[in-house]
Amino acid sequence: MKNVNEKTDLQIHGNILLCLLVLLGMAVYYYGLRALVTAALSSAVCVFCDFICVKMRKRDIELSDLSSLCTGLAIALMMPASVPYYIIVICGIFATAIVKHCFGGHGCEIFSPACAAYIFAEICYSSEVLSYPKVFDYPDLSSAVSNDLFPSFSKTMQTASAAPVSDYEMLIGRCVSPMGTGIIVLLAVMGIYLMAVRISSFEVFLSQTAVYTLAALILGTGAAKIKYDLCGGMYLFVSIFIICRNAPKTLKGRIIYGICSGALIGIFRYCALAENPAVYAAVIAAPVGIMISDREAQRKEAAADAGAGSDSE
């Protein structure tokens, strides 16, 4: 997909990588060395698999391509700190070989490799992917951990009458959640930064959040739990790093894309009762963004042809 700005690919993924590393640092603080090992393994698998696929397709290796590294980190941060290593390896191979290279490699993907790999893992290994250790309950480095595991904060809030943590604990990520997607304060800072440098789209985020909030009021449990829905289910992480980054170029296109993604998140959350609705919405909304971008390109090309025709006359 095309981005909302004209920055180089290295600038885009360099900034994203920086933000993901900040989130990883906080994950290591909360979950210990296992978070670092999981992220390193995920990144290594994605980079190595990308190298093999590029060689098999007889293409040139681009040393400036950081997309596989970003995908590996994103997959790790979306997982619980207790996830078995073999799932991380499978996700890395699936994201790179299937989602990325089957559609033509970097720049030609239809879906986010990280989100598609997460959905694959959640469907195939739901008990391992949807069970989480508590913050500061550092899992050991063995593949199968011995720590007690719990449902996520997002899952708990689907049925709970009151939040199990305070608002302060929720904002700083001291609740049961994936390693890097529940630290709301940091995610807000990362979002503001990426929108300020025009890597993520503010218009998409605003329209998407407005529609998702409206869906919560109409289909959900009312205003009392809106803040928990916006802070859970990987909403901020996926929105900032995936949905808002793959936006059409025109203002109208970005607003339409944001409305579609917000509506999909609401449907998955309140109709399908999905624990992480933003991940599913990101994958389904991706073709919508591509379609809007293609229409914009066609109109621009038609306008250019019409202008060239009038000049020739």
Report on the architecture of this protein:
By secondary structure, this protein is mainly α. The protein has two domains: 1-150, no CATH class; 155-307, no CATH class. Helices cover 64% and strands 0% of the residues. The protein has 14 helices and no strands. The longest helix is centred in the last third of the chain and has 36 residues, at 277-312. The protein starts with 8 loop residues before the first helix and ends with a helix. 45% of the residues are buried. Mean pLDDT is 89; it is low at 1-5.
Question: In brief, what are we looking at here?
Answer:
This protein has helices at residues 9-31, 33-56, 67-77, 85-100, 113-124, 126-129, 153-156, 167-171, 184-196, 202-219, 226-231, 235-243, 251-270, 277-312.
Supply Rg. 20 Å
Quickly count the domains. Answer: 2
| Low-pLDDT segments | 1-5
Report the sheet-strand fraction.
under 5%
